[in-house]
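Need a sequence for this fold. Nothing fancy.
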């Protein structure tokens, strides 16, 4: 018989069209790959790069999705995937001498964050009080 495969689902968050070149964002992203979410946020808060802010927002969004929507334990979350890809490019022009205009492209980035961890333990079901017992108790007190 084949052993059952345990699949740990991941929770995703995207930050699309971040107004910074993907090469610059991926440099900062490499600092926090495969770390816990808490460590990654501390590292990015102390990183003096502009790309740290959108990465923090994407990681915190994935953390909130995992805790609030999927029931994960916030203390056990780790970053399983952190990828930075190219986004849309905006064609712009820069004025040059003699009335010319030189074209350039404003580059944007897409950030994908996947976190995984342990699910919160299920709470035990509350005891259900029957209606007969609830009706009897007030009469006994009088």
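Here you go.
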């Amino acid at each position: 018989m084949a052993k059952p495969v345990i699949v740990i689902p991941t929770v995703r968050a995207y930050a699309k069209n971040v107004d910074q070149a993907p090469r610059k964002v991926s440099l900062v992203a490499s600092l926090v790959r495969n770390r816990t979410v808490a460590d990654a946020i501390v590292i990015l808060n102390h990183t003096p790069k502009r790309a740290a802010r959108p990465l923090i927002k994407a990681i915190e969004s994935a953390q909130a999705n995992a805790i609030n929507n999927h029931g994960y334990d916030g203390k056990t979350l780790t970053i399983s995937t952190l990828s930075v890809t190219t986004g849309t490019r905006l064609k712009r022009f820069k004025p040059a001498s003699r009335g010319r205009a030189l074209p350039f492209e404003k580059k944007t980035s897409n950030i994908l964050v996947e976190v995984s961890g342990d699910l919160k333990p299920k709470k035990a079901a509350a005891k259900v009080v029957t209606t007969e017992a609830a009706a009897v108790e007030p009469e006994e007190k009088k």
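For context: Strands lie at 11-18, 78-95, 101-116.
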